[in-house]
Structure to design on (397 residues):
């Protein structure tokens, strides 16, 4: 076991060395063309500098190479976590499915945009396992050639610089358009054996921030939706708030405009959205309260309108399971959980929106108006057949 961990660390270290080599090359090129980040003193000879410690521990901070400070920050982030499910999911298959590799391996990402010299498009063959989001993902000298990113809704979104990378990988994989397509012409409350849960995928902050313009959520007909959340100048891109290497939020950035630096406690709106009347807590809490109410309403609709109770388990795909006797325990058949099997169009729309909001832990900062609208409309849509007067809930859209 210890040996396996050590081997993995050594492999990661080797990956970093290769990446730094690529990075130095990329930065030198970027400097020559006058764009891109400046590299630190000592690396402008064009020679890769590797000073490897003779023995462990292999803490990134202890590796005396010019980019050590940046590497140490990157090593704190999920982007470098070679043990994460997001990078190990394909281990048993021995290679990453091409369509998945675009976001789950830098090799796939570069291939998709032709940054590696290949023809642009989804890689033609499976990509080797073991990749992370390496330095060259963002520091590729040709990153600036990516002019637009195709969102799951089909909308082509113009991008500039490194944000092209963030938006590509953080937009999710399905949108309201997929939900509309699956449910066209089907009666709202009739169970259809053809329907299955549609998963928007994970960490889709870029799509959420683009709101009604990016159209990631299921947007109910006849309703209008807030567009891109522009926040306030100079907050403009992902990097206005996220450090590009450790990905963390620096509270002092927020404090230049907000009176509270804790993102979850920040609030501008003077109105209460969740019916609590409390407009002092962070907008984060209104969103969590309405998301919880939506989940409760989803379960009530399944049990009372469809007569087939549903249970949710966020740790197991496909998340929504059968619970025939309504005791809150997921049904099992042959030792395996039974996926929920009484989908109606109305249920699919609401669960998709609930999951899209839940899949972006930063939704409250990325686009609070849009997610509040999606949650409100989903609750309202389920309330009709449940016979609950929406006004009695006291929510604000
Ligand atoms: C090649 C795809 C890819 C690119 C490009 C990418 N990310 Fe990620 N990002 C991921 C994956 C995959 C994860 C999840 C990693 C994990 O679970 O360890 C992630 C995780 C994150 C997280 C969660 C925090 C953490 O430490 O895990 C944040 C925040 C984030 N990315 C922001 C960004 C920003 C900002 C950019 C652009 C500067 C960006 N990402 C570019 C794929 C990417
Ligand atoms: C548009 C980019 C994108 C594509 C394409 C993509 N993913 Fe992901 N996926 C992500 C991001 C970002 C995360 C990180 C979220 C996290 O770690 O929770 C993620 C997370 C995951 C996870 C980990 C979930 C968890 O609970 O930690 C699995 C499994 C996964 N994806 C499977 C797939 C499969 C299978 C495919 C191809 C059929 C695929 N992904 C295609 C962006 C993508
Ligand atoms: C997810 C995208 C991303 C990844 C991955 C990434 N960088 Fe960066 N890096 C950036 C961006 C964006 C900037 C510019 C930051 C700015 O202008 O404030 C930057 C700046 C830099 C700088 C100069 C500024 C500084 O903070 O010192 C260096 C050096 C650097 N990166 C090295 C690396 C190395 C080495 C790696 C891999 C260990 C890496 N980067 C991985 C996006 C990334
Ligand atoms: C106004 C500041 C702001 C901007 C701009 C912003 N984010 Fe975030 N983001 C946050 C906050 C706050 C969180 C909540 C988690 C935290 O505090 O780390 C978050 C969370 C995330 C997460 C989940 C991290 C986790 O560990 O759960 C991802 C992924 C992410 N953002 C990606 C992006 C991408 C991609 C962009 C650009 C399209 C972006 N963000 C723009 C503030 C911002
Ligand atoms: C340049 C000033 C500025 C900076 C810096 C800034 N914000 Fe904001 N923020 C605003 C303004 C103005 C609004 C209201 C925008 C609107 O409603 O259109 C806002 C709205 C918000 C909201 C929604 C509040 C509500 O009640 O709807 C959240 C959450 C938020 N900001 C989080 C953050 C976080 C987290 C950071 C730091 C990473 C940050 N902001 C940095 C100016 C700023």
């Amino acid at each position: 076991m210890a040996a396996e961990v050590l081997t993995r660390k050594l492999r990661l270290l080797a990956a970093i060395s290769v990446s730094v080599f690529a990075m130095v090359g990329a930065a030198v090129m970027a400097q020559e063309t006058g764009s891109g980040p400046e590299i630190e003193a000592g690396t402008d000879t064009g020679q890769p500098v590797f000073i490897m410690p003779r023995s462990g521990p292999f803490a990134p901070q202890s590796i005396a190479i010019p980019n050590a400070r940046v590497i140490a920050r990157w090593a704190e982030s999920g982007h470098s976590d070679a043990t994460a499910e997001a990078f190990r999911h394909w281990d048993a298959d021995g290679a990453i499915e091409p369509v998945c590799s675009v976001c789950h391996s830098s090799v796939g990402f570069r291939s998709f945009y032709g940054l590696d010299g290949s023809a642009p498009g989804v890689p033609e063959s499976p990509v080797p396992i073991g990749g992370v989001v390496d330095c060259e993902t963002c520091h590729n000298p040709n990153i600036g050639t990516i002019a637009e990113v195709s969102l799951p809704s089909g909308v082509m979104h113009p991008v500039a610089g490194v944000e092209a990378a963030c938006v590509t990988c953080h937009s999710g994989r399905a949108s309201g358009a997929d939900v509309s397509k699956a449910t066209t012409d089907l009666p709202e409350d009739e169970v259809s054996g053809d329907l299955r849960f549609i998963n928007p995928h994970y960490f889709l902050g870029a799509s959420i921030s683009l709101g009604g313009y990016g159209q990631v959520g299921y947007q109910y007909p006849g309703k209008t939706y807030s567009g891109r959340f522009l926040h306030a100048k100079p907050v403009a891109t992902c990097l206005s708030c996220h450090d590009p290497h450790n990905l963390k939020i620096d509270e002092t950035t927020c404090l230049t405009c907000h009176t509270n630096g804790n993102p979850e406690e920040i609030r501008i709106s003077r109105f209460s959205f969740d019916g609590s009347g409390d407009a002092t807590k962070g907008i984060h809490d209104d969103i969590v309260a309405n998301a919880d109410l939506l989940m409760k309403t989803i379960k009530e609709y399944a049990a009372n309108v469809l007569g087939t109770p549903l249970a949710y388990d966020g740790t197991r795909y496909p998340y929504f399971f059968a619970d025939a006797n309504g005791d809150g325990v997921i049904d099992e058949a042959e030792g395996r959980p039974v996926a929920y099997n009484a989908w109606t169009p109305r249920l699919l729309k609401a669960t998709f929106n609930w999951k899209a909001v839940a899949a972006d832990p930063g939704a409250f900062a990325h686009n609070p108006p849009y997610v509040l609208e999606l949650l409100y409309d989903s609750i309202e849509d389920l309330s009709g057949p449940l016979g609950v007067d929406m006004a009695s809930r006291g929510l604000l859209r």
Residues 166-167, 170, 203, 205-206, 209, 231, 235, 238, 240-242, 249, 263, 361-362, 365-366 surround heme C (ligand 4) (CB under 6 Å). Residues 2-32 form the longest helix (31 residues).
